[in-house]
């Protein structure tokens, strides 16, 4: 691996880094790129479980539109290696804070850092409907901005798991004139008059009753089957996974969290700085709606803030001496 040519790093082989980045997705790799270019000794700890792994492609990232998530990450790893950034395939299982941050890895090692960026993202819990998990990322989708163009004008279904699914049905109607909202676990009485008026204006058909499964023919979604035995022809089904933030490390450090409709996320400033001194976050670790392009941008912001923080901290220490 390419070694960092910063002379100050040559005296430190003890496993202490300027920055440890926990998470090797778009946010973590973007942060690592900035840190490496800033001549900081940096380690990325990557468990290898990106949220968008089920997708064959990612969209909406200028110059990378249509690229597979796996290729995007592979290129990112190559880029950070040019600047001496180290990457270890492992999982951070614990962290403590003393004079520095001690990050315990599942493989048994403990690494130390002056600053920490947590980009552990979130985990999607899919509705427990047979066939949904198997088709997720193919013709069972969650985001029209990510996949809407590729399935435009097809026959859409939306699986309601809460009244918020009405919003999803209204949004996807921008990509197809044929949208059916399957109420599934939501009772009709839970929909407001405004919901019903908007659904009617969008031409969205509302079907009550629990969804029992999907109809698959020749490895393609062809319909949605209800518990009463009726079936509806559909070629795309949108679902709303439950977002489970991966905040375990933040909680161990005592970071303040704030509740949102999509889970509890760290309280941060515009750079991603948390309420724990020396700890930043970026990507889906700080919010539900961070797309790949947002995550990369957030990683850049957090890293540049850390660079400034370390430079000023070292200068202040030198002045004090």
From TrEMBL:
Keyword vocabulary terms for this entry: Flavoprotein, Membrane, Oxidoreductase, Transmembrane, Transmembrane helix
Thylakoid found in the keyword field: no
Transmembrane segments: 15-35
Boundaries of every FAD/NAD(P)-binding domain copy: 17-297
GO molecular function per UniProt: thioredoxin-disulfide reductase (NADPH) activity
Catalytic activity: [thioredoxin]-dithiol + NADP(+) = [thioredoxin]-disulfide + NADPH + H(+)
The keyword rRNA-binding belongs to this UniProt entry's keyword annotation: no
PANTHER family: THIOREDOXIN REDUCTASE 1-RELATED-RELATED (PTHR48105)
Protein name: NAD(P)/FAD-dependent oxidoreductase
Source organism phylogeny: Bacteria, Bacillati, Actinomycetota, Actinomycetes, Kitasatosporales
